[in-house]
Amino acid sequence: MNDLILRTARGEKTERTPVWLMRQAGRILPEYRAVRSSVSGFVELCQTPELACEVTIQPVDLLGVDAAIIFSDILVIPEAMGLPYEMVEKRGPFFPNTVQTEKDLDKIRVADVQSDLGYVLDAIKLTKKELNDRVPLIGFAGAPFTIFCYMIEGQGSKTFSKAKKMFYTQPEFSHKLLQMITDSTIAYLKAQIEAGADMIQIFDSWAGILSPEQYDIFAMPYINQICDSITEVPKTVFAKGAYFAREAIGKSNCNTVGLDWNMDVAESRKLVNGKVLQGNLDPCALYGSDKDVEKATIKMLDTFGPDHHIANLGHGVYPDIDPEKVKVFINTVKEYSAKMRG
Ligand code: CP3
């Protein structure tokens, strides 16, 4: 088994730096779009374990990444709590119903993972079997604050100001909903691990819109609950834009701290208390020529140094990136990081 990423996440020295990409399943691969167009929509693809398994493994075969990430979405949690969603072409997620008041909490529930999310667990079991230990499988969930954003707003937003407004106007309601999301997420991640996930990542995609004080009150305590509850496998916390939270995440019970491309690596090393770092190439760097991608990748590897680093982009790969450039990124990490060990 290629278990480089697991050994690195546990803090061990390895023969080279492991590499994978956030959002590697889907988006950029024509082979994904072929599978995607064979079904009615994104939600059906997520809910069909055979197909979810197929598109999970595509980047392992086609790109050569050191880990697979299960094909699903962070939005399956609000759905399992009672808010179904649609994925609208070119617009993104849309929830016909949202939560706005304390009374609305009676209409939703803490997810019953086995009955509401059994399809993800089946996809994980099947994928583990098909991967046959070639690379580890990453399970994931959204962080409670990011999920809260979608449950309040019902769709994407530049500011998520309706969600943030709740923290100023209805803090008690906000904490109740965040706790329900957290309870659902802990049960969900535990079930993913039981089904075979070898490590997990928590995506706090909208973390950067909160003030540091709000992050301490409405985000970090729930991430801590999750990290304290999951003891079975290595955990990564990626809080996009939350440069101010690195120290708190460094003190949490996670193994790896995800960095976006705005976060300085040397400064992050000091803040995170010896934890492993993941990231952080600007996804736009992959628009450059092969030579430019190689140069940018080498520069990134030099700033992180050989140990305690999982190579990745600083956010998900963009849909219009040429898969060939992704391969240049991956192959450069593999070759250069082996050389860095002398
Ligand atoms: O990483 C992977 O490749 C595994 C699958 C995965 C998806 N979404 C599949 C997907 C993962 C890990 C996610 C996480 C996710 N989903 C996040 C956190 C990561 C991040 O990018 O910040 C967020 C915020 C979402 C919510 C979401 N899902 C949005 C806003 C959208 C629409 C815009 C977009 O990103 O494409 C989605 C749709 C989505 N999720 C697609 C895929 C492959 C595209 C839909 C399609 O194929 O029709």
TrEMBL record:
Record keyword Lyase present: yes
Every Uroporphyrinogen decarboxylase (URO-D) domain range: 18-27, 138-154
Major localisation: cytoplasm
Record bears the keyword Membrane: no
The entry's keywords: Cytoplasm, Decarboxylase, Lyase, Porphyrin biosynthesis
Gene3D superfamilies tied to this protein: 3.20.20.210
Compartment(s) where it occurs, according to its Swiss-Prot or TrEMBL record: Cytoplasm
Name of a matching Pfam family: URO-D
GO molecular function: uroporphyrinogen decarboxylase activity
Site (Transition state stabilizer): 73
Catalysed conversion reaction: uroporphyrinogen III + 4 H(+) = coproporphyrinogen III + 4 CO2
The protein's Enzyme Commission number: 4.1.1.37
Cellular component GO terms held in the UniProt record: cytosol
Pathway where this protein functions: Porphyrin-containing compound metabolism; protoporphyrin-IX biosynthesis; coproporphyrinogen-III from 5-aminolevulinate: step 4/4
Gene Ontology terms describing biological process: protoporphyrinogen IX biosynthetic process
UniProt: substrate binding residues: 23-27, 73, 150, 205, 315
Protein purpose: Catalyzes the decarboxylation of four acetate groups of uroporphyrinogen-III to yield coproporphyrinogen-III.
Subunit note: Homodimer.
Family: Belongs to the uroporphyrinogen decarboxylase family.
Protein name: Uroporphyrinogen decarboxylase
Organism: Flammeovirga yaeyamensis
